[in-house]
């Protein structure tokens, strides 16, 4: 007799789990928030636009998904610290998953790139991932999900291949791969898994 495996939701239940997903109002981040929440996780997300966040929160509430939101520009250190304080309070000093998703794509031939553009992309895409991981570490140590805490860094195929006109963006993503490997080895003994996902082109906002 075939075993009753239950529904997809039962098999992959995340009931009781908690997640922070940056950049959840659009695109890939929005889809991740919904998917995690559909499997029962409580999710907190952020972006820079308060009105869009509230609209998303309202729609998620209508779908009975447990999602809280707060404004955060991940390129600003003080904003990142405030975000993690909010997450700490919301999830009682514990976190199971951090998804470093928020980032900006930037196209410009390299010779024309300014130091401000370089610095802005490095801060938004790379430094935010490093710092949010640092801030999340004590919360992830108390993860209650089976297998321990988990960090997912949203990288790009641009981090592994030549990407003409996207040099700064591709550099942030290439560095993200090394950050991921280093944190995975450093925090493995703490039972915190660190992985990166590197999609190709996806039509998003
Ligand atoms: N789409 C692709 O083809 C593709 C391919 C490979 C990798 N990726 C990666 O996947 C991730 C998501 O991409 P996407 O295409 O879904 O992007 P998207 O549609 O532009 O959405 C980006 C999300 O991040 C937020 N965000 C951007 N800058 C932010 C900041 N400084 N602080 C806080 N939130 C910020 C945006 O909201 P606000 O702008 O309102 O703040 C939005 O919610 C990125 O890491 C990207 O590099 C995308």
TrEMBL record:
Domain of life, per lineage: Eukaryota
Gene3D superfamilies found in the cross-reference section: NAD(P)-binding Rossmann-like Domain
Single GO MF descriptor: oxidoreductase activity
InterPro entries per the UniProt record, alphabetical: KR_dom, NAD(P)-bd_dom_sf, Sc_DH/Rdtase_CS, SDR_fam, TR
SMART domains, per the entry: PKS_KR (SM00822)
Domain Ketoreductase positions: 17-200
Signal peptide positions (record): none
Keyword terms, alphabetized: NADP, Oxidoreductase
Family in the record: Belongs to the short-chain dehydrogenases/reductases (SDR) family.
Identification of the protein by name: Predicted protein
Taxonomic source organism: Hordeum vulgare subsp. vulgare
Lineage: Eukaryota, Viridiplantae, Streptophyta, Embryophyta, Tracheophyta
């Amino acid at each position: 007799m075939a075993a009753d495996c239950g529904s997809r939701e039962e098999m992959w239940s995340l009931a009781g789990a908690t997640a922070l997903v940056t950049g959840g109002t659009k695109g890939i981040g929005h889809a991740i928030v919904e998917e995690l929440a559909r499997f029962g996780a409580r999710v907190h997300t952020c972006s820079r636009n308060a009105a869009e966040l509230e609209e998303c929160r309202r729609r998620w509430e209508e779908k009975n998904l447990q999602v809280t939101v707060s404004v955060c520009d991940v390129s600003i250190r003080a904003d990142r610290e405030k975000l993690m304080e909010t997450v700490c309070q919301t999830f009682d000093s514990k976190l199971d998953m951090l998804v470093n998703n928020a980032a900006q794509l930037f196209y410009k031939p390299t010779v024309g790139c300014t130091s401000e553009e370089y610095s802005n992309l490095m801060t938004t895409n790379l430094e935010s991932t490093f710092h949010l991981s640092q801030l999340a570490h004590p919360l992830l140590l108390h993860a209650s999900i089976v297998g321990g805490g988990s960090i997912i860094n949203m990288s790009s195929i641009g981090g592994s291949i030549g990407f003409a006109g996207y040099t700064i963006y591709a550099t942030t993503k290439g560095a993200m791969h090394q950050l991921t490997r280093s944190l995975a080895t450093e925090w493995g003994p703490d039972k915190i898994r660190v992985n990166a996902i590197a999609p190709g082109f996806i039509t998003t906002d």
